[in-house]
């Protein structure tokens, strides 16, 4: 065991020297220089044909979540086959249509109308979290799989209804988290699964930013993101879900035994209806997790710390990791890229829809995210009742 750990430490050190010999801890490396364009003829440049992420017929439900710009950019760049968009807000539809040059034939004011007319294979949800259940109510009976932006639902009751429909109609119901596509987080779990840091004892996840209004999220987004009914909570739901998702994944689907949480309202004038800061302690039989979710960080943060009996790993961001194993000197390194098709939500989605054996317990899975919803629900109850909630 000790020899294996020593070898692992040497391997990480070699990789670190090759990749980050001049990098400082926590600082991103310079972006790679893109290759020069290929000359087609004197005085002209060849325009590369975009590589399709997926040939599936994709439908979009809602345009008010700011993450929708990612899929609309992919559509504009010719990377996805988007066949229809459903959005009830006429003004919002018009703005997005103009910005991304979307033809009238793709725009609908109702999800059912869009599905019947365009017959998408999968629907992506970019609407208020409390409306995710409405997407599943419409799509599941028609056999259409769904991927929503995190979290799965605004309440545990909604999540249970969505789970029932997904299982009844045999659809895939997935939840998309930004951190699912972080190479650094994947590397941390890979090393932990090899028992290289010993048994996991403590996990700490920091997530958030200065606040949705402070970072200039759109009004369409913040109007429901800061509403306790439409979002289910404030920062607790918005960023607490990341930690719950990652801990469930790191512990291979283990359910916690108890949850304790506190909420703070540091900016009541800016966010009068919801908490802007939450701390959640998640208890497991052999480990403890601490989730720090906030709209009151001095800067944007998404990081992960994992402590084992014999080692420690800290993913600072999506690429950079500090590893300290078995009293060897700490080493910083850059995580290797995630292998396709698991490196992008759209390529992953296509793989999961085509192969029912893929993605059953991972971070996007229904099984994982039902546990996430139980943790968030227990955190809200702990705050309301002022006590530790035993699950």
Protein model, in words:
By secondary structure, the protein is of the alpha/beta class. It has 12 helices and 17 strands. The strands form 3 sheets. It has a 9-stranded mixed beta sheet with strand order 16-15-14-13-9-12-11-10-17. Helix 5 packs parallel to helix 6. The longest helix has 20 residues. It is globular, with a radius of gyration of 22 Å. The two termini are 35 Å apart. The N terminus is likely disordered.
Brief summary of the model shown:
With 391 residues, the chain is α/β, with parallel strands linked by helices.
Name the average pLDDT. 91
Strand content: 15-25%
Rg over CA atoms, rounded to whole Å, is: 22 Å
Largest sheet: 9 strands, mixed
Helical proportion, percent range? 25-40%
| SSE pattern | HEEEHEHEHEHEHEHEHHHEEEEEEEHHE
Structural class comes to: alpha/beta
Molecular shape: globular
Question: What is the count of β-strands?
Answer: 17
Spans where pLDDT lies below 50 across 5 or more residues: 1-39
Keywords:
nine-stranded mixed sheet; 391 residues; disordered N terminus; single chain; globular; 22% strand; alpha/beta; six-stranded parallel sheet
Topology:
Elements: H1 2-20, E1 39-41, E2 44-45, E3 57-61, H2 68-76, E4 81-86, H3 90-100, E5 107-108, H4 111-118, E6 122-125, H5 132-139, E7 145-149, H6 156-169, E8 173-176, H7 183-193, E9 200-208, H8 219-225, H9 228-231, H10 235-250, E10 258-264, E11 277-283, E12 288-294, E13 301-308, E14 311-315, E15 320-325, E16 331-334, H11 345-354, H12 366-385, E17 389-390
